[in-house]
Amino acid sequence: MKNFKSLSDFNSYLGVPASLRDEIDVGLYHGYPLRLSSPSVSADFYRISIKHNFQGEHILENYQPDFSGNAFMFFSSPKQSFHWDTSEPWRGYYVQMHPALIHNNKHLFYNFLEYGQHEGLYLTEAETQKITELFNQVYTGYHDKSINSDILLGYVHLLFSFINLFYKRQFKDHQEGHNRITQRFVNLLNEYYPKEYHKGSGTPSVNFFAEKLCITPNYLSDTIKAITGISPIDHIHQHIVAEAKGLLRDNSLTSSEVAFQLGFDYPNYFSRLFRKVTGVSPSEYRNQ
């Protein structure tokens, strides 16, 4: 599978103009001789695009979006494979950014950048108009030499803020599917200690449950937060403390033994978490 390291190399492959900068590129799809079909490829950067009038297949790993709505937003993160096959050129905008740019401008990172195959963004008509306006603002700023990098990244941040807002709307609209994920997460969490996962994996983690559910950690985090109001790591911490309370009531175990039995490598990490959640230390809880 071909992997593209530079923005301009991918642009040449797709059929759009070369990038004007090394770490960020903003462009239009329409008006250029686009490559209409491609086998699986990947890139070393993030791609965010809005596509209008796309007919055919555009598959990220094993995910095939539904293109029947007003417009569809497509995201891919570094090293994710994607391929496409269509008979007609499509319209829209794209933003491409190297991870280093986001690393140096952490306010630009949103979890949706790494949802991957699990949650495309389907826009309403009003949202399509707003996102298209914001993409156009970013595109205009990118090609305006009087606009410096700080202003350009400000435009990008505004675009991402609205994308995040519209994702929250979508989570509320599609609660049935997200409820299923939440229930499966809760079931796995309740099974964690009875099935002795901690003996091989230590204390439960978001990554562990995301892998079991075949979704990305960021997507799991946003799904659980949208449905329950608290993050999965908070659910995990509450569950660990509930298990710890039962063990602490057994006076035959020391606090350190409880910590090791729950999968902690270091008892002080257990004590710190217990105090954070309950407001008291394990020994203080036992003596209450």
Key words describing this protein structure:
single chain, 288 residues, Jelly Rolls, Arc Repressor Mutant, subunit A, 2 domains, 12 helices, 49% helix
Average of pLDDT:
89
- Please, how many helices? 12
Helix/sheet category: alpha+beta
Helix/strand order, N-terminal first: EHEEEEEEEHEHHHHHHHHHH
User: Strand order of the main beta sheet, please?
Assistant: 2-8-4-6-9
Total domain count? 2
CATH first level of the largest domain: which class?
Mainly Beta
Unreliable stretches, pLDDT < 50, 5 or more residues?
none
Mass-distribution shape: elongated
Question: Which SSEs are present, and which pair or pack?
Answer:
Layout: E1 2-4, H1 7-14, E2 24-28, E3 37-43, E4 46-52, E5 56-60, E6 72-76, E7 82-86, E8 91-97, H2 99-104, E9 121-122, H3 125-143, H4 149-173, H5 175-191, H6 198-201, H7 206-213, H8 217-228, H9 232-248, H10 255-261, H11 267-278, H12 282-286
Parallel strand pairs: 1-3
Antiparallel strand pairs: 2-8, 3-7, 4-6, 4-8, 5-7, 6-9
Helix pairs in contact: 3-4, 5-7, 5-8, 7-8, 9-11, 10-11
Description:
The radius of gyration is 23 Å and the shape is elongated. The model has no long low-confidence stretch (mean pLDDT 89). It folds into two domains: 2-173, Sandwich (Jelly Rolls), CATH 2.60.120; 176-286, Homeodomain-like (Arc Repressor Mutant, subunit A, Orthogonal Bundle). The chain is an alpha+beta fold and 288 residues long. The protein has helices at 7-14, 99-104, 125-143, 149-173, 175-191, 198-201, 206-213, 217-228, 232-248, 255-261, 267-278, 282-286; strands at 2-4, 24-28, 37-43, 46-52, 56-60, 72-76, 82-86, 91-97, 121-122. Strands 2-8-4-6-9 form a five-stranded antiparallel β-sheet. Helix 5 crosses helix 7 (206-213).
